[in-house]
Design a protein that fits this description.
This protein is an all-beta fold. It is built from no helices and seven strands. The strands form two sheets. Strands 1-7-6-3 form a four-stranded mixed sheet, with no helix packed on it. A three-stranded antiparallel sheet has the order 2-5-4, with no helix packed on it.
């Protein structure tokens, strides 16, 4: 579902679950957004993260965001995986 452009910061737009079957540091995973977007990842519980709106959206400027999320373990060497999301912004009457 598209995100309304008038959604307020801290609105959760997606839940991300990560899993690494390794043990110890190799099984500890952190997630980051690759790039500069008006969204942030916040740890939720266990291996879950919330993708939240971090700042105001404006559909007239950007109608969709293609976001890459990188999950990295704490092993030596660290291994990583990427997942891509497309977040569409819906128009709200600005008048």
């Amino acid at each position: 579902n598209p995100i309304p452009e008038d959604a307020v910061p801290s609105t959760v737009v997606a839940l991300i679950n990560v899993r690494d079957r390794d043990s110890g540091d190799n099984g500890e995973v952190s997630c980051n957004i690759d790039g500069d977007f008006p969204f942030r990842l916040e740890p939720s519980s266990g291996n879950a993260y919330k993708l939240e709106i971090a700042s105001a959206l404006d559909r007239e400027k950007v109608s969709a965001y293609s976001i890459t999320i990188i999950a990295r373990d704490r092993g030596m060497p660290a291994l990583s995986s990427r997942a891509a999301l497309v977040l569409e912004v819906s128009d709200v009457n600005d008048n």
